[in-house]
């Protein structure tokens, strides 16, 4: 095999691996997000007492997370992953992180959440931020 054929073959494998990495990042995000949404829906009364956040608000967040998780799954399982769709997923994740950190610090939109809620919100923001970083890495790898 010539050097150019070897390089082309390596490039194909790298592109395929980049696609797998991006799909994995999207699917992990989708599953964690949807499971979290289901937990908010099913356990809203218990979490409301623990977090000092209304069960109605928790259910609303749960519905959003469940729908978003399904949409992210669809993005990650399409035959060709849309760069625009991934960009939108990353943007929503970044907005989630910023709003979560503001809410944890100020209680904005939540009333006066408990310390446990504030810690949970920050931990969630870190996980969502990690998903956004992994998805951006996957996009960049696909470009190479």
TrEMBL record:
<feature type="transmembrane region" description="Helical">
    <location>
        <begin position="116"/>
        <end position="139"/>
    </location>
</feature>
<keyword id="KW-0812">Transmembrane</keyword>
<feature type="transmembrane region" description="Helical">
    <location>
        <begin position="21"/>
        <end position="46"/>
    </location>
</feature>
<keyword id="KW-0472">Membrane</keyword>
<feature type="transmembrane region" description="Helical">
    <location>
        <begin position="88"/>
        <end position="110"/>
    </location>
</feature>
<keyword id="KW-1133">Transmembrane helix</keyword>
<feature type="transmembrane region" description="Helical">
    <location>
        <begin position="58"/>
        <end position="76"/>
    </location>
</feature>
<protein>
    <submittedName>
        <fullName>Uncharacterized protein</fullName>
    </submittedName>
</protein>
């Amino acid at each position: 095999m010539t050097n150019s054929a070897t390089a082309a073959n390596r490039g194909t494998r790298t592109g395929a691996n980049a696609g797998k990495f991006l799909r994995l990042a999207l699917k992990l995000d989708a599953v964690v997000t949807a499971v979290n949404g289901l937990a908010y829906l099913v356990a809203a009364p218990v979490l409301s007492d623990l977090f000092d956040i209304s069960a109605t608000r928790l259910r609303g967040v749960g519905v959003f997370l469940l729908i978003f998780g399904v949409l992210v799954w669809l993005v990650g399982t399409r035959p060709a992953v849309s760069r625009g769709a991934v960009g939108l997923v990353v943007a929503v994740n970044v907005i989630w992180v910023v709003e979560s950190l503001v809410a944890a610090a100020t209680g904005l939109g939540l009333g006066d959440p408990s310390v446990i809620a504030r810690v949970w919100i920050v931990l969630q923001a870190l996980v969502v931020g990690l998903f956004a970083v992994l998805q951006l890495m996957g996009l960049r790898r696909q470009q190479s």
